[in-house]
Amino acid sequence: MKSIYQGIIRLLFLPSILIFNQASAQQSLSQQEQQLVEVISADLPDTLNNLEQAVNINSGTMNFAGVKAVGELMIDQFEAIGFQTQWLAGDKFNRAGHVVANFKSENPKAKKILMIGHLDTVFSKQDNFQSYQQLSETEVAGPGIVDMKGGNAIILATLTALKKAKLLDNLSIRVVMTGDEESSGRPLSLSKKAIIDGGKWADIAIGFEDGDGDIKTAVVARRGAIGWTLNVTGKPAHSSQIFRDDIGFGAIYESARILTEFRIQLSNEKNLTFNPGMISGGTRVDEDRSNSTATAFGKANVIAKQAIVRGDIRAISASQLKKAKQVMQNIVKQNLAHTDAELIFDEGYPAMAPNQGNYQLLALYSQISQDLGYDDVKAVNPRKAGAADISFAADHVEMSLDGLGLMGRGGHTKGEVADLTSLQKNIEKAAILLHRLSGKVNEK
After folding, report:
1. Cβ count within 10 A of residue 25
2. Rounded CA gap, 194 and 252, in Å?
3. R_g of the chain, CA atoms, integer Å
4. Paired residues of 102 in beta bridges
5. Where does 94-149 have alpha helices with state H?
6. pTM for this one?
7. How many angstroms separate the CA atoms of 34 and 38, rounded?
8. How far is it, in rounded angstroms, from Cα 287 to Cα 194?
9. How far apart are CA 418 and CA 141, in angstroms?
10. Which residues contact 79 (CB under 8 A, 6 or more apart)?
11. Which of 118, 365, 368, 444 is the most exposed place for a label (fewest CB within 10 A)?
12. Residue 125: count of CB within 10 angstroms of its CB
């Protein structure tokens, strides 16, 4: 194992040293920032070991013991750098729970930063994808290594570097690592309370998901996501009688009308998507929502009495969602003869709307990347970034930014692979970002 890590370190350190020397010669970094880079480089073997340890603990969302085990690992590491920690049990929302870690500056005017990660993955205990697997000197496969145990490792390495460089005292930090990001507990008012409370406390929220997997992008906007259910009823009769004034069109034709009008009236709305993911119809429909299954009974010569459609809708802002929901409800009310329909929206993730503060934070992060000798960082297209926990905090803070985690590919699949060349770079960028946000930057 030691030889593998030595190979990784050699490959990752050599370009970093060259970049560091170039940045230093150009005097792009302060002395304190140069010190941070040095500390991060020296600590990289420990960061890789910590990452491997976390990945090798199965923490599929419903494996409560595994999620808590990863949480306990994080708690030990936070406490080692002086954080006050808490395990928030998830009994009330049927999940394992969350880790909250706090560090309070003695300066009452210190910036308050919320850093967001999550402990759970999409891979259950029964899955055959369970362990950290070295593929090459720059690539490692593993369940949740990108989404988002790599991001958690970056959070810890960032804070450890600031602590060792004696720069952590200039900030007040709260870290929330949820145990249900991949499958949220209900009600959301309880399962996301730690994130919401963190947003209300903080000035700035930073998420360490992997965004679209491109180190040259970060997330200034995430679309919200909520589910919807369309329940439709019609008048059953022999199929030969369909379209008669006293019989009407049946539940399936009404469902088709509604879905077609959704598409016609809303599909050109920028950044708005809505998808009917499952439809069942006939004389009788029986659903098992816990397993996302349904069975239907019907005959070709009988007009459908019942239809159920389930889908989701994603919007870039609360106002866009409100408008879309109203349009959809208006369409649902214009029933075909002898049919009735009801559209029900579930609770879900709010949008992380783009705003000036988010773009300002992105600009600062991009400048830091360039000061380090790396590429500038641009805003990712929100169509390429799904919902995430930061959305529950975004409305409560002055600025927010996500996608600062470990880059890679194949998230949520057995082909999940991390690009280790992004690890040190993103730790450096995050550490210097927090330092510059503190306002305690010395002369270059």
Report:
1. 8
2. 43
3. 25
4. 84, 174
5. none
6. 0.89
7. 6
8. 33
9. 6
10. 85
11. 444
12. 12
